[in-house]
Amino acid sequence: MTLKVSEIFSSIQGESSYAGYPCAFVRLAGCNLRCRYCDTRYALEEGEPFSMEEVLDKLLSYRLRLVEITGGEPLIQQETGALAESLLKQGKTVLVETNGSLDISVLPAGAVRIMDLKCPSSGETEKIFWDNLWKLKKQDEVKFVIADRHDYEWARGIIRERLEMAKGTVLLSTVFGELPPRNLVEWMLEDRLDARFQMQIHKVIWPHEPRGV
After folding, report:
1. Model pTM greater than 0.90?
2. Smallest Cα–Cα separation from 75: which of 164, 3, 1?
3. Is residue 103 scored above 90 in pLDDT?
4. pLDDT single digits (tens) 134-180
5. Distances from the Cα of 176 to the Cαs of 12, 54, 86, 202, in angstroms?
6. Residue 35: pLDDT band by 50, 70, 90 thresholds?
7. Max CA pair span of the chain
8. Which letter, b or e, does each residue of 124-149 get, where b requires 16 or more Cβ atoms within 10 Å of its Cβ?
9. Residue 107 in contact with residue 84, Cβ under 8 Å?
10. For residue 123, is it left (φ>0), alpha (ψ between -120 and 50) or beta?
11. ∠5-175-73 over CA atoms, to 5°?
């Protein structure tokens, strides 16, 4: 069983409700979307074949409780579910970050699905697989990346109309370097929005490192 891998590394978890914890990452290569503000373009195609055993051995060598499978888009590789299951069997807390365009039910029940809902500025809103909203579990998280006021109002509508009855944590962050975080926070406070603000803290810690953070 082979996976196409862009990179494997350890770092601080920069996003989600797990932000700040040491984490082992595997970034799988390939993505079915082309978001305008993508910050991992090197992972869209670039990658090398690794056996499942090689990936597991490397991730386990970091001896960290938290492991994230990310991309690219990890769900375009059929082996991703098996990788997540193997890590769960090793007692790891497994996060899978996905762009929301593919069926999240292929992942094992114990994995934490961090699902991005692509806002209009991404250029990929029409690719959202809306049925995923009803497949969320309590431990899962939904993320909106906001570039401007229009994105915010779109996300606010989705949160109030579709996510009030859904399970999981709702996260809002800004497109790094485009929207001042203060603006988003002020909008959320004005609307008393039931969501959690987050920043990409790895980009604050390592602002000039594009990989391995």
Report:
1. yes
2. 3
3. yes
4. 999 999 999 999 999 999 999 999 999 888 666 679 999 999 889 99
5. 18, 33, 33, 11
6. very high
7. 50
8. beebbbeebbebbeebbbbbbbbbbe
9. yes
10. left
11. 25
The Cα–Cα gap between 6 and 71 comes to 8
Q: Other C-beta atoms within 10 Å of 69: how many?
A: 27
Determine how many CB atoms are found less than 10 A away from the CB of residue 67.
25
Q: How far apart are CA 185 and CA 197, in angstroms?
A: 7
Residue 36 one-letter amino acid: R
Domains of the chain as residue ranges with CATH:
2-205 (3.20.20.70)
Provide the pairing of β-strand 66-70 with 93-98: parallel
| 3 state SS for 118-184 | CCHHHCCHHHCCHHHHHHCCCCCEEEEEECCHHHHHHHHHHHHHHCCCCCCEEEEEECCCCCCHHHH
**Angstrom distance (rounded) from CA 115 to CA 96:** 8
